[in-house]
Amino acid sequence: MKWKKILRVVFFAILALVLLYFSFRGIHWGEFLEGLRAANYFWVLMSVFVGALSFYIRAARWRILLLGLGKPVKRIDTFNGVGIAYLANFALPKAGEVARCGVVSQRTGLGFDKVLGTVVLERTFDMICLLIITVAVAFLRMDVFGDFLVRYIWTPITKWFDGSTIWVIVLAAALLILPVLFWIVFREKLKKHKAVRKVTDFFKGMWKGLIESFKMPHKGMFFFHTVLLWFLYVCTAYCIILATPLRDSLTFTDAVFLMVVGSFGWVVPVQGGFGAFHFIVSLALTAVYDLSHTMGMVFATISHEAQAVTMLLTGLFAVIHMSVSKKSKKTH
Fold first, then answer.
1. Alpha-carbon distance 72 to 37, whole Å?
2. What angle (nearest 5°) sits at the alpha carbon of residue 149, between those of residues 147 and 155?
3. What is the C-alpha separation between 177 and 161, in angstroms, rounded?
4. Side-chain-facing half-sphere of 175: CA atoms under 13 Å
5. How far is residue 226's CA from residue 232's CA, in Å, rounded to a whole number?
6. Domain ranges of the chain
7. Model pTM?
8. Among 36-40, 268-272, 282-286, whose mean pLDDT is lowest?
C-alpha cells in the first residue's frame, strides 16, 4: 500500500510538471515578467482576503450539515478542517476530503463515516451549482462564447460535411440518442463492469445528494451560504482581473466565466492545481478572448499563486491553532 501511495504521488507530480511545461512553452519571458511586475498587488492581496473569507463561509456551511448529526460543532473546528484539507491537497490530490473529516471527527466525537457523508452531500451540491453556473454564463455572454463556438467548433465540423448543416444536426442527434439506446439494450451486461458501476453510482449519489439537501435542517441558511460562497469565488477572480490590464476589457460576468474555468482546473487531480489550472485558464483566455499566450499565463499565474497562498496560510493557521489548543488542553 505504501508503494501504491508513493507511485500515486509521483504520477500526479509528473502530470503537474508536464502540464506546467505545456503551459509555459512558447511564452515570451520578458513580456511575462513585465506583466507580473505591472500587476496591481493591492487587488492581489484583496483576492487573498476574499479567498480566505470564502473558506470561512465554506466551513460555516459545512457546520450546518454537521449540526444535523446531533452534536455541537464549533466554527473553528470546521474552519481548521477546511484549512487542513487544502494543505493536504498540496501533498496528495483529493486527500484533503479525508483529512478534514478526520480533523472534525476527532474534535467533535462524531463518527468518521457520518462526517464523510456530509462532505459527499456538500460536494455533490457544489458540482450541481458549478454545472448550473456554467450553463448560465454561456447564455450571459453568448456574444463572446457564441463567436468562439462558431469559429472553433461549428465551422470546422461543417467543413467536414462540405458545409451541410443538416448532416451535422443528424450526427449530433445520433450522438445523443445512440448512447441512450445502447444503455437501454445492454444495461444489465454493462452493470457487471466495475467502471460502469462507478459512473452510475456517481450520478446516483449526485441525485440522492440533491434530494437530501431539501430535507436537511436549516436548509435556508445552507442555500444562503452556498450562494454567498460562489459569489465570493467570483469576487476572487474579479480581483485578479482588476490587478491586471484585463480590467479595461473584462467585466464581472467574465469573472464568472474565469471562475468556472478555474474550478475545472482545480478538479484535475494534481498537487495544488499546479499545471492544470495554468493550462486550462490560459487556454480559455487565448481561445475565447484572443489574448496572447504570454498574457494568458500572466493572469493564470497570478490567479493560481494568490489562491495557493490563501490555501497555504489557511492550512498553516489550522496546524498552529490545533497544536496550541492541544497543548493548552494537556496543561489543564
1. 48
2. 95
3. 20
4. 6
5. 10
6. 2-19+38-154+223-331
7. 0.80
8. 268-272
